[in-house]
Write a structure and sequence with these properties.
heterotrimer; A mainly beta; B alpha/beta; C alpha/beta; A: Alpha-Beta Plaits; C: alpha/beta; Pyruvate-ferredoxin Oxidoreductase, domain 3; seven-stranded mixed beta sheet; 5 helices
């Protein structure tokens, strides 16, 4: 049940911080960004550009097929990622591709 | 209490100073400019500790009001006419965000054709933007209304912006006696800074003005309905308290020689003085007439208007604003609606005068009343406004 | 005259001569004295040199309306050339008191009646005291010769609200000088 008019803070103000977390914007996606962890050079540009903060920087080592070892890994949070494609557009090494949802 | 010789614009500036306003975003427009000039003087010589924000338009001025009020400041601004139209977008934003800003409006005609002179069309166009509107009839009342406006706006059961309106030029630039307390602490005690609205505060985080979809918008806008209902009561309460402290009495409407009057002439702003004089002259001739003025235009004091008119033989409203597309004046429309709501059946005549500051004479009001009473008696009541002072 | 409740003054000048300020000085002075008063300009476009009208009402009771003054008790003319415009004398009565900036009795007294006529070479007084042809304070001195309710001392005091320092001093001098030199006929 949604609140009655007198139960809403005046002027529709949001008085609880972090309410955006409840919005599952991942449902809006048509294309899903997928990171090729071997191509990725850990430059952090996708993390910086993502308008939703949906690129996560994780303390997990990754060793590429060519034997380069990175201390961190970037992952997309698909619960919030809207599929805008900015990360793929900005990636300097084209390590992110947009894949149609429901296509494996 | 010392008496000063002040124009209504200066009376506004003195009241704003005494209310210890924090932020004044303002852009000059005739005939409002001297308010901003006087306030700048007060700030420059240290009499008022406020931030004056010079902006590039009225739209920016009112936008800055939104920001400053949302930051918890006591905010004042003033504009009129084209400036009010340019800033219109911000009016429902301020009422919607429930920000208790006070704005003086020395009312002025609208272009086209260009006019810098006074009438009330600007206010009438802006009257349904969710603001409380007080219309003053003399410089003393302007001073008193600005002070009361902050109390009303910031009352926790109201939290709505207030316009303090009066006649551009005819009042804004006329010097009159104004009683001003010599100790401004008396005023500051009357308008303590309680800050009971939601404002941006790091210790109490809040997001203001988010998107509201069809599931939310209606309820949030509806909150203003009870706020306006409360405003009616608070306007009366504040007036009562003001009377106790300062000795000058105000209400939502004012009556003059109305007790036994068969007919009432109704107006607002500077027209009121003309009505009072005309009533005296008509009474001398034995005409049973009184006067009524609207001080509170929004929320419209429906019951007060209806009970003042109940049992009369007729009323004449003089609107100092020319609205087209409706055959009658804007406040005439309001009053007839009030009567219908209260189920009071009194015939009324709409008249328009003072448009673009066309000169008004007391005799115009005397003649209008005599002509109007003839019409009431004969039952031939015009279906359209009588346009006074028009070359026709 | 003392039994009258209201005094009306209509001011005619040219933009820049200070007719509006003069109207305000008299009203301010009355208000400071505890009387009721009102002053407002005829709100036309404000241009230097254009004919300007202003109004002052003084009263022993509150003034409610803001009607322009049609039949003035006092008609104050800051520039005698304005007497050639027919509108200047509009509504003047036989007992209206004319105060005019003119070195000699104005021609108009030959053709019509006034209550009294006061004339003063206010331009000369202004040039000698203030050093500029702003005649509004000088003409006040002439008006005070014939004005009820307000005295010379009242006006000298209320000038504080409009001027300070050297300007206050020279304007006070202009009022006194004109008061002494004005001729009443």
């Amino acid at each position: 049940m949604l609140p009655k008019w007198y139960e809403i803070p005046l002027g529709g103000a949001l008085t609880e911080p972090g309410s955006t977390r409840k919005n599952r914007t991942g449902e809006w996606r048509t294309f899903r960004p997928v990171i090729d962890q071997d191509k990725c050079i850990r430059c952090r540009i996708c993390w910086a550009y993502c308008p939703e903060g949906a690129v996560k920087e994780i303390d997990r080592e990754h060793m590429t097929a060519k034997g380069v070892k990175y201390p961190i890994t970037y992952e997309i949070d698909y619960y919030y990622c809207k599929g805008c494609g900015i990360c793929a557009e900005e990636c300097p090494v084209k390590a992110i591709t947009l894949v149609r949802e429901y296509e494996k | 209490m010392p008496r000063l010789a002040l124009t209504s614009n200066y009376a506004t500036a003195y009241a704003v100073k005494m209310c210890d306003v924090d932020v004044i975003p303002v852009y000059p427009i005739t005939p409002q400019t001297t308010i901003a000039e006087k306030l700048s003087e007060f700030v420059a010589n240290g009499e008022l500790n406020a931030e004056i924000i010079h902006v590039e338009s009225e739209h920016s001025a009112l936008s800055a009001c939104v920001g400053a009020s949302a930051a918890g400041a006591r905010v004042f601004t003033a504009t009129c006419s084209q400036g009010l139209m340019l800033a219109y977008e911000l009016l429902p934003i301020m009422s919607g965000l429930r920000l208790p800003v006070v704005m003086a409006v020395p009312c002025r005609a609208l272009s086209a054709p260009i006019s810098i002179h006074g009438d009330y069309i600007d206010l009438m166009v802006a009257r349904d933007a969710g603001w409380i509107i007080l219309i003053s009839s003399c410089a003393q009342e302007v001073f008193d209304n600005v002070i009361q406006a902050f109390r009303i706006a910031e009352h926790r059961d109201v939290l709505l912006p207030v316009m303090v309106a009066y006649d551009g030029f005819l009042m804004s630039h006329t010097i009159e006696p104004v009683e001003v307390p010599d100790d401004e602490n008396i005023v500051r005690e009357f308008v303590p800074k309680k800050r009971e609205w939601l404002y941006l505060d790091v210790d109490r985080p809040v997001t203001m003005g988010p998107l509201a979809g069809p599931d939310w918008y209606y309820e949030i806008r509806f909150q203003q309905v009870p706020a306006m209902r409360n405003a009616y009561k608070i306007v009366k309460e504040v007036a009562e308290e003001f009377y106790k402290k300062f000795g000058r009495k105000y209400d939502t409407i004012e009556l003059y020689r109305a007790e036994d009057a068969e007919y009432l002439m109704i107006g607002y702003g500077a027209v009121w003085g003309f009505i009072e004089e005309a009533v005296d002259r008509l009474r001398e001739k034995g005409v049973s007439i009184g006067g009524m003025r609207i001080r509170l235009l929004r929320p419209l004091p429906v019951d007060d208007i209806a009970s003042a008119l109940r049992g009369r033989k007729g009323f004449i409203v003089i609107d100092k604003a020319l609205i087209t597309g409706m055959p009658v004046g804007p406040v005439f429309s309001d009053i007839t609606t009030a009567l219908k709501i209260a189920n009071v059946d009194v015939p009324g005549i709409s008249a328009v005068h003072g448009v673009g500051q066309r000169t008004m004479y007391i005799r115009d009001f005397v003649e209008l009343a005599e002509k109007g009473i003839e019409m009431f008696k004969s039952g031939k009541i015009p279906r359209e406004s009588i346009y006074l002072g028009l070359r026709a | 005259m003392s039994s009258r409740q209201e005094i009306s003054i209509r001011w005619h000048g040219r933009g820049g001569q200070g007719a509006v300020t003069a109207a305000q000085v008299v009203a301010t002075c009355a208000i400071m004295k505890g009387l009721y008063a009102q002053a407002f300009p005829e709100f036309g476009p404000e241009r230097r040199g254009a004919p300007v009208k202003a109004y002052t009402r003084l009263s022993t009771r509150p003034i409610r309306h803001r009607e322009p003054i049609l039949n003035p008790d006092y008609l104050v003319i800051l520039d005698s050339s304005l007497l050639e415009l027919p509108a200047t004398l509009d509504g003047a009565r036989d007992d209206t008191i004319l105060v005019v900036n003119s070195p000699e009795p104005p021609e108009v007294v030959k053709t019509r009646r006034f209550g009294k006529v006061v004339y003063i070479d206010a331009t000369d007084v202004a040039m000698k005291t203030i050093g500029r042809p702003i005649v509004n304070t000088a003409i006040l001195g002439a008006l005070l010769k014939v004005l009820d309710l307000i005295t010379l001392d009242d006006i000298l005091k209320s000038l504080e609200k409009f001027f300070s320092g050297k300007l206050l001093e020279v304007n006070r001098k202009a009022v006194v000088e004109a008061y002494n030199l004005a001729k009443v006929i």
